[in-house]
Amino acid sequence: MACLFCLLLIAFAAVPVCAISYTTENFHTTLDVQANSSMHVTETITVNFESPAHGIYRDIWTLDKCWFVNSGGELVETDMMYKLKHFKCEGEEIKKTTSTNYVTIRIGSADVTVTGPHTYKLEYDVIMYKDSLSDIDQLYWNIMPMYWQTDVEEFSYTINLPKAFDESQVEIISGPIGTGDTSRGIYTVNGTTVEGTIDGPVASGEGVTVRIKLPQGYWRGAKDDSPKAYILMSLIGLLTCYVATLFFRYGRDRRPVKTVEFYPPDGMSSAELGYLYDAKLQKRDMISLVMWFASMGYLKIKAEDKQERGLIRNGKKNITLHKLADLPDDAPAYQKTFFNGLFPKSKTIADLNKLTKSFGSKYVKAERELQEDYSSLMIDPKSEESRGKGCLVAIVIFLLTVLSFCIFKLTDSLYESILGEAFLCLVFIFIFIRFMLRPSDYRVEMMGKIKGFREFIKKAELDRINKLVEQDPDYFYRILPYAYVFGLTDKWAKHFETLAQQPPEWYEGPVEFFVNPSQFCSSFERTASRSIAAAMPKPTGSSFSGGGGGGGFSSGGGGFSGGGGGGGGG
Per the confidence metrics, is the pTM higher than 0.70? Predict the structure, then answer.
């Protein structure tokens, strides 16, 4: 099917841009075949241009299909592969274009037009690759191309072989592709030379193929790229195993060991803990910083009934933040940025309902700084390095696969094997790469502590809570920002239902507004989220306009004619 598709492409590609009227008076092919299954081809083509033309095209197959009936009466199909080189045409300019399965030779100059009779002598070398036949060798070549645009009035050929052969095994096949007609081939054998003609003109769309069955071992040193293909496939497999080894050594996640914790590890803030917990910095993590600053004594939260036109809106509160102290000099940069965004310069009061655009910019910067502080601590460096190696291996496998199609001459089945293996290996490699990154030792250790701390907030026992409150009367409110980050405010408050809890010192306002910490946190989050969203800087964009003229190519005064693919009547 692929071969037929290529034949159709060549048929259309051979049509000249403008109609060129010409006839082909004579076409003679000479094959000088060597014992290593290479040969020198000389094609002498005489055409008569009835209108001005620049020259002709010649298409030559580099991958062809051969069908024949073996000694057992079975129809056998095999791939015939060729490498073409050293093109020259006496007195003419030539240009070679390489496609997947054929080479196109343009003979003639775009600056020179020709009319009347003209003879082209095209020469080139062919390296015939080792075929898949184990019991015979053979010479198989299209000595007259298919899809030549005109009838050929006279076609003749000379084939010089390097050693003796059985002349009864010579087949000259002519006609359209697939006909297998050997009745028109007229030839004589003189020693190791076959000479002959085709009875009558060769019509446009017909071809001529020579097939000579030779004893196994007739060719010596025939070029064979299949060992290289197997080496390439082994290399692709080894590279995939290498990436798999990297994954199992550096990519598999280690389970954190959950420890019993009553306080956040390493004294980290609620925002840091929230980021480390799920490796995502969410808005609630940053909002919790306000309560965390309050619990640390840096600010006070004040709630007042909201008034509109002198009337108190039931349930609606104005929440303001009052600065009590500056952050210490050794505070992390993200904390200073966030805090100074709330209280710029000498300002000591921030209205949570109306945060400024300046705060929005500071908020974004604080998020970035927090992520940067932990960026080098989140991922195991070896897994990151292994992921990079995996990506490099994937690129190498892709390039090797592409190069194999460009450099090697292989059967379709071998090409398919390489492509199939490369595809499967790349799928596995991309899966390994996807899951290669694993948490660093630091994060695994912290995750064990964070999970233990979260477990305590969720399932704290009353006896333990009583002891902690005895040690720190503000323990409930000190842990509240962390419970809020975990989404466990309700459960944390429920543990303290039997304990008389007054609003914290950092809160000022109606007691009933804080009697339910979960309700307070929800109201606080809604207010802060709306205000932060309004304060966020708007993304800037740009638009592009323009145009561009198309361009085309035009030509006149004749063109190139001819073409013709491989493929004989066989």
Answer: no
